[in-house]
Amino acid sequence: MTHLSVLLVEDDADFRASTAALISREGYETREAGTIDEARKQIADAPPDLVLLDLVLPDGEGLELLAEEDLSDRAEFVIMTGHAAVESAVTALREGALDYLPKPVDRTRLQTILANVARTRGLKREVSTLRDELRQLGRFGNMVGRSVKMQAVYDLIAKVAPTESSVFVTGESGTGKELVAETVHRLSKRGDRPFFALNCGAVSSSLIESELFGHEKGSFTGADRDRRGFFEEASGGTLFLDEVSEMPIELQVKLLRVLESGTVTRVGSTTPIAVDVRVVAASNRDPREAVAENVLREDLLYRLNVFPIELPPLRDREDDIALLSQFFLDEVNRREGTAKKLSDKAVDVIRRLPWPGNVRELKNAIERSAILADDTITPSHLPGSGGVAAVDANLPAEDSLEVRVGATIADAERRLILATLESLEGDKKRAAAMLGISLKTLYNRLNVYEAAEEKSSSVGT
Description:
The chain is of the alpha/beta class. The chain folds into 4 domains: 5-120, 3-Layer(aba) Sandwich (Rossmann fold), CATH 3.40.50.2300; 138-310, P-loop containing nucleotide triphosphate hydrolases (Rossmann fold, 3-Layer(aba) Sandwich), CATH 3.40.50; 314-387, Helicase, Ruva Protein, domain 3, CATH 1.10.8; 409-460, Arc Repressor Mutant, subunit A (Orthogonal Bundle). It has 19 helices and 18 strands.
């Protein structure tokens, strides 16, 4: 049985009995009241999730009950009346009623309302439970952290998740943007529907259109069958587009058209297919700078950036580092059937390491250290010389990069990438791993830098 308590406030005994029986058959807890005063007492004793309220009652109008804030804040209200009129409907909705049902009540419409309220109240209860976990354990769904900055992120997720708005998550690589998308999906009305994630920077430009929108058999070499794309697969649910600024600019036009029309057209086809997808996008670079660099369309950013959420880097979450370290070690212990521990000195070292790869780098470091340690992880098991030098043991500890105050993030990122490559003698695979980005993203960044240099050279000549 789906948990939903319904209070039916109706003075017509026969109608009340038949409607209560219908609600009960749908599997919901049902109580009855014949007057406003009786309804007040029942709400005070045990607040229901939904009040089905007659507009005209022996001791007053149902709207009086709806207008009482201490009551209406605790339940959803749906007005029922045989005195159907546009004016009364508008008044009820203005006072905060969820819906308006003229008598005789349409059974299908009532079933739909009950189902929607059950789902909405369930989401609110889950959000409340997650907030309790946050306060007690530093958890919010699959996200971990009790720092002030992460609590602010959790509050934003809780506000936007029940809506249908697009979400744009920004933050450095490794901060957990996909976890945010998964949590938004879980707490939404689509939570029991599909969730798909596509890293736009990890798919070649020749294949990403087919990945997103699907293709028809014979539309290109190797297309030996019809294929549904991510939008079709995720229809009814949520699609997470990671590193959306790495998507080819010409494909961004088609993505914008899909978001605005709600239809996709497979490669090799001219037939539009209706899809119902909520999009959560993400980028590890400032989207405004991406627009300025002509790698992200401004109109697409406006469409995606309805509700922005910025994730803090791990260096700004010092209070969470020990909590995350223990969480990741607990995961390893559960998976491997071990009982390894972190020494106090190891925790102290972990707090002082820079973690440029953020949470992802910390997780990998804890797993590696757990493999090396017999029973207890000590500083000697942590990355670098004695756990406090360079994160990559093969990178000289004295290597550093100075960035002037006021430099743009894009310029600092460019200098860091190029300096890391130089220190590793051009080893792109190691550089990408150290920087906490995909190899594809590294190549994309280098292509952007090369194109900028060529443009600068051509201007100079």
